[in-house]
Every structure is written in structure tokens, then in C-alpha cells.
Amino acid sequence: MRTVGLVYDLRDDYLALGFSDEQTAEFDKRETINQITEALSGLGYAVEPIGHGRRLAAALSNGQRWDLVFSIAEGVRGRSREAQVPALCELFDQAYVFSDPLTMAVTLDKAMAKRIVRDCGIATAPFVVLESGSETLADWNHYPAFVKPLAEGTGKGCELASLVDNEAELRAAAMSLILRFGQPALVEAYLPGREFTVGIIGNGAHAHVIGTMEILLNADAEPGVYSYTNKEEWERLVTYRRADDEEAGRAADCALAAYRALGCHDAARLDLRSDRTGTPVFLEANPIAGLNMTHSDLPMLAAQNGITYADLLAMIVTAAVERYEITDRGFADLRASA
Ligand SMILES: Nc1ncnc2c1ncn2[C@@H]1O[C@H](COP(=O)(O)OP(=O)(O)OP(=O)(O)O)[C@@H](O)[C@H]1O
Ligand SMILES: [Mg+2]
């Protein structure tokens, strides 16, 4: 039977390592791990729950291997934290699902991702990175602006106070975020148009969009931003709509181009928002997209397009398997016969 090692950041595991409540607030829910386990088991894999990256490191150095490592672990420290598990896998010649360390690190640092995307001719909002908040802003004339942490996710630090109208507000927002998150602030021109998130699966010529979902904020939502609060209370505050009109089509094209430009593997979810002319603009790429069956955007948009959760996991694993050119004999057998 083929084996999958499942790597994840379960909150209890980190509490046991001495991390604080706040540091672990967003780690993986047991429910999500159970859902992934069930889906992968349904594909005929024997799923071994490994836990966080340090457990994987110990197992790999003990000589343990699996046909595939399936990791949703985002790591704890540093802007390369999402690259840690893929890097470990590469170090130990272990096949794994999702993007490689380079893509993981580049996409977590949103400014790095934007530079690559921009260099490939893909639309992204003008931006500046502030390390202290007191740098000169002589060349910055894009107001309103949006200020967010350089390398976070789940809408952390993306809130009402992020939307600023002048230099004084911009500096105040940037300094507050720099202090709060211990990292630089990314300042972008504010994009006031429609918001889309695009699910993509596959590699190279096989990479394709599985769905584009529009995010609509309800009357009671924090306005103008798909913020942490709006994400947390999405059932009350957000409406998700399958989008297949012309503007959504351009968002999908832009997302696929960015997926390729950033060298994503197997699957990712890309976020875009339109500027005031209705042109969809790249915001960021999520190469470890949330995989909770009911709460996460990628499974949601898959479902809107007739792709069940089990199908989604099958598509992701198949993309990885094809990438490694693993046959039904499994990667381990291939290696043994090499
Ligand atoms: N330049 C911008 N203009 C307008 N809105 C923006 C801008 N940047 C971010 N936002 C809003 O903030 C939200 C969160 O931004 P972003 O996707 O960069 O953060 P994130 O925390 O990495 O998201 P995720 O939860 O997808 O990981 C966006 O979905 C969007 O609503
Ligand atoms: Mg986002």
C-alpha cells in the first residue's frame, strides 16, 4: 500500500513545546487533519500522522520515508517558515506535495512575490516596503493606500486601520503593524474593485484554474477589506459567489500567469482585487491553501464547481504524483529498483 506522511501544525503540539496561546492561535484544527486523512485514505493511501516539521525532521533522520509527504504546516518563525518542510524533504530525498522551498519563501514575502509577478508583466498594485515606518515617502503618491504585514496570512493585520488616506495615517498604520508583527510593513495602492480568489491545480502545461470565487462583504462586515475578523466570522459577514463573468475570467488568467511566474507546484489559491478601472490585479499567492472542508476558500470554490473535497485532494495528489512521475508501483519501489 502506498504511504503518505501527513505534516501539520497542530496547536497542542506547539503548546507542549512551550509556545504561547497567541503564537499558536491559528494553527491547524484537528478537524482539518481528520478531513485530509479521510480523503487520502479514500484514495488508497495509508496515512501516517507525523505532526510538525521538527517531528518530520526526526523521522527523516531516523531513515523513515513515505511515498509522499503531504504538508499543510506553515511553520512558526521567519519569512521562510513555509519553506522549511519542503526544504527538509529535499534534503532527505523525500517526495512531497505542493511548492518547493523557493516558491514557498518568495510567496510568503508578498513584496518578493510582487516583484517577480511584475517582472513577468502581470498587473500588481504599486508598493513600497517600510522597515521602520520613518523612511522617506517622497515618491509615494498613491492614496488611498493599504498597509499590511509583509509576510503574514489569514488576514492578520489586514483591517480597517490598514486603509489610509494620507502620509500621517500611513506612517501610523505601518509603525503599529511593524511593532505588532515584528516585521516590515507592505504599503500598496488600495484596490477598490471586486475581490476574487482563484483555485489552480497542476503543473506546467497541465496547470489550470478549477474555479474563481468572488468575495462579497455583507452589510455588517468590516468594510472594504476581507479582514481577519471577516474571515473568522465568514458565515455571518461574507458571501461567496462563483464568478464566471468577463472580469472574473481576466482574474483567472492573471492568477494562472502568476502561478506560473512564481513556479507554484500542484495547487495554490491566488488572491486578486480589481483596480478602479475593473482590471484584476495580483495581491498574493497561497501555495499552502487552507484545506478545511467547509471553512477554507479552496474547498469552497472547488465545491462551487462540482469538485468534491475528495476529488480536490485526489487532483492535488495526482498532480504531485505526475510531477514525480510516480507510477502505481509507488515512489519507494521506483527508488528501490533504481
Ligand atoms: N492593496 C490592497 N487593496 C485593497 N484591498 C487589499 C489590498 N491588499 C489587501 N487587501 C485586502 O486585505 C485582504 C487580505 O490581504 P492579503 O490577501 O494580502 O492577506 P493574507 O492575510 O495573506 O490573506 P490569506 O488569508 O489569503 O492568506 C484581501 O483579501 C483584501 O480584501
Ligand atoms: Mg489573501
Characterization of this structure:
With 338 residues, the protein is of the alpha+beta class. The chain folds into 3 domains: 2-96, 3-Layer(aba) Sandwich (Rossmann fold), CATH 3.40.50; 126-189, Dna Ligase, domain 1; 192-307, 2-Layer Sandwich (D-amino Acid Aminotransferase, Chain A, domain 1). It is built from 13 helices and 12 strands. The strands form 3 sheets. The chain has a 5-stranded antiparallel beta sheet with strand order 10-9-8-11-12, with helices on both faces. It is globular. The two termini are 19 Å apart. The mean pLDDT is 93. Adenosine-5'-triphosphate binds next to strand 5, strand 11 and strand 12. Adenosine-5'-triphosphate is lined by residues 125, 146, 148, 152-156, 158, 188, 190-191, 195, 225-226, 271, 273, 283-284, 286.
